[in-house]
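pasting for ref
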Amino acid sequence: MLAFNISFLNPVARTIDNFRMTDVFYEISNTGAERDTSGLVTIVDMTDEFDRSRLAEIIDEIQALEPSVMGIDIVFDGVRNDSIGNERLIETVCSTVSPTIWAYKLTHWNSDEGQFDRSYHSFFTEVVDVEHEGFINVQRDTNGGTIRTLGLHRQGANETEYSLTAQVALAATNDSSIITQSRDCNICYTSTYFPVVPADSIAAYANLIRSHIVLLGAMHDIRDQHYTPIGKIPGVEILAYAIQTLVQRRMPIEFPLWMSMMLTMLIIWFIQLIQQGVTNRLSRSRSSMRQYLGNSGMAASIISMIAMVLLVGACFVLFFRWNIYFNTAWAIMGIALLDNAREIYELIIRMVASRVDWQWLKRSMYYSDDD
């Protein structure tokens, strides 16, 4: 924890705090592997659709194919001069049959109260009683901007606000526990391809819409591209991953901080014992080669390298087999710095032993009568 309290070490702390081994795991799983096609979520690409009459027509066409849930990742800003388009869209909002979640944005964060004071909704909410809405604010990590989580609920000025991700998952499962147990969704970026349907070919892809969760959003809008552990992808695709995570209950379980710290110390202590035992045995060997390996520290370095590889491998299996994540950043750094820490400790022991005659000090493995 030293790095968090000393200003010149803050960059180190920020780097470690923002590092997640899951980024490496997801990159490995998505590289060179054939992605599974999602049978749960379909995306309708609305990148080039701006006319409100046309947007209403697309929504009606999708509704006619009876999707299980429809999430619309579009906020329709104020009333436009196109009165026909405005009216046509309002008619569509009133006539939707399948559960439909409309998007809005939370605004004006109040840090003192820990809540959002305002929200920005589509224009038709002023004249139509919209049953389901969800916010689409993207929560990035503090450092680096990589999106690993999406908010499920936040405190608004008057009530708890639920995200579009949470509302779609709730409508698809009718199980409120998946959105109330946690404030955020830790997104599982497994190797998945979400079918993308062009907005001008809805009828041709009826099999990908009927009884599916359908998300409407822009796949090629450069303003809605975000960094994730698997690269830069559109916001609507991030929503698809998050919804799939919730519906399939695949949200990674992360070790609590206290447990991670204890396990990290145990791992480092165990590696230290192995290194000390092996190097002492090699140093007492009659073979000059073994003596060199023990005295030069090369054996300890080899043990450190093997330990780090095994640790990462074990965490990889733990994550993809049982969906449990242990942040190995501190453990890897501790193992890598064991040799330096041992040298510093030995120097301190020898310095103290040269000035005082403490019996307990003589029990240290680094105490020497030669001093």
